[in-house]
What does this fold into?
Amino acid sequence: MTFRARHLLGIEPLAPEEIRTVLDLADRYVELNRRTVKHADALEGMTQINMFFEASTRTQASFELAGKRLGADVMNMAVAQSSVKKGETLIDTALTLNAMHPDLLVVRHPNSGAVNLLAEKVNCAVLNAGDGRHEHPTQALLDALTIRRAKGRIHRLTVAICGDIAHSRVARSNLILLGKMENRVRLIGPPTLMPPGVAEFGCEVFDDMSEGLKGADVVMMLRLQKERMDGGFIPSEREYYHRFGLDAEKLAHAAPDAIVMHPGPMNRGVEIDGTLADDINRSVIQEQVEMGVAVRMAAMDLLARNLRAERGRALTGGADV
It folds into this structure.
């Protein structure tokens, strides 16, 4: 299995074969997670610390569950009650954590690049659970697994990513991954929610849903990230839903067997019609949640293997063990 990374900080450093390695291993963990007994020992004896500087439900819960199912000792650091709130710098926090000798550190942070900075200061494997507007690699990987299981492949598909592209690390990570796997990517949304230089990613840009969705195999909706907005990016939620919210009428422009995705949490009646979100024939939103646990298990398993090999070489003076 090809996976050389020491950390999982983003999709950008990963080669296509490394992406396939994560997805293939995650497929095996999907089967494990559907059994009555869901435990494995890939992280036996290891310590995992989850450090979320931003609120999270799905990502934090799935990382915690993934670690426990693989046999790790899992600690969720309560950042709201931590020394960070007392003025401790991120580097001092990293040094403190390092002294506890964790093996895996899962970090979500509101500032782009903060997770990369932590990774430079600790002696363990670091997983980026989302940093600012930069990346959210495990979300892109779980989306890829969901697509591959629904469509039978993760290449040469037409994927439409719709909504708040400018503020979305999910969009950025998906853009990179889908591009690496030779897919045709379309971005759909109002010009105010498109980032500058978006055409450099090699995608098509639309401000009309009917045009952008034409023939799409996958329709990926995004949440309006109001917490990152500091101005009037949309006239009103009602107007936004009328033009860019996904409903049956707009979805009719996509391929007849197109699947509908959303990373959550959803604003029903703003980004997506509630009935469509619950349509088991089109929506794979709940499957995305299930794939999240399996993908995070696979990512931590692979990083743990590399960490053990690295420590083994250090003990033997660089020779393979």
